[in-house]
Amino acid sequence: MTSPERILIVRPSALGDVCRSVPVLVSLRAAFGEARIDWLVQDGFTDGVRAHPALSGAVPFPRKRLGRMMRRGNLPGVIRWLNEIRRARYDLVLDCQGLARSGIITRWTGARERVGDAGAREGAKLAYTRRVETGAIPHTIDKMLALLEPLGVPDVRDMRLFAPPEDVEQAAGDQRLAGRFAVVAPTSRWAGKRWPADRFAAVVLALLERGRGIERVVLVGGPGEQEQCGPLLELASGDDRVVDLIGKTSVGMMMAVIERSSLVLACDSAALHIAVGFDRPIVGLYGPTDVAKVGPYRREHDVIQHTRDGDVLDHKDERVGAPMMERITAEEVIEACLARLG
After folding, report:
1. What is 287-312 written as a DSSP string?
2. Rg (Cα) of the chain, in Å, rounded?
3. What's the 3-state SS for 202-214?
4. CATH topology for 165-341?
5. Distance, CA of 37 to CA of 29 (rounded, Å)
6. Which tens digit of pLDDT belongs to each residue from 188-219?
7. Does the domain made of 6-151 have the CATH classification 3.40.50.2000?
8. Where are the domains of the chain?
């Protein structure tokens, strides 16, 4: 193909998926050094990529606002937003999400080259001029990188993330984040992915007592997730070595905190994938999730998971997921954390 001048990556969500899609950006930049490369990303997740030096610009996707327009029948408002994207005149678009909304956006750009997965769901594949068969590829990152093959773009598996400079500066000036600390991300949108909060609390106490130089434990999570963390919040209220930042940081600030950490302990969540992007020591707690497909990229050895014959890997079903997560003991998590701090 003719070398494109204006490229759009369509990967709006979720935050963990956005952060671990950066190899696509890096690969495109290495191949098309002079091109403008933008990324359409959900407006709450722009911090995940906007500071990356390979990116020309983040295009915010206002999912909630557009959803309200659709519910109110304001189709002209949605079309006006789509036309703003079209006016950028992209000549190459990669749909790395593969759902109806990303397919509609990809098609609406009018780009002459529109690349996506042949297995894209909800009819999204109808938007593509090139459909790439990825069914035999297990991991989602490798599936996204396969979209580059028909373009003749070599893949660059560079996972590095870059926190926004203002958040890096703020984190550097926060005395609670000085010295050696661990980050614990105990929350998940899906109940089937959650590890019992009292076991997280037991690990936090062990890290503070035996943590090989760990001075503090910092708790992170999203707004509204405090209710998942009762025993941990009790610890934080009585011990200033436990810093409660759950629901109190932007995405960029959470990235800056993780970048400074000595260890990240998390369920299958965005925090874990962000930690991979900053090459932090990690312990990932997995239950009803296929690690080969969506685990921390090339860090499967850092995952604790106990599957049995007959297990159904359905993270949306709490009845399936909760018992799998409960197979993970606090003692083995403590030992794994201490080993990575050694």
Report:
1. SSS-HHHHSSTT-GGGEE----TT--
2. 21
3. HHHHHHHHHCCCC
4. Rossmann fold (3.40.50)
5. 8
6. 999 999 999 999 999 999 999 998 899 999 99
7. yes
8. 6-151, 165-341
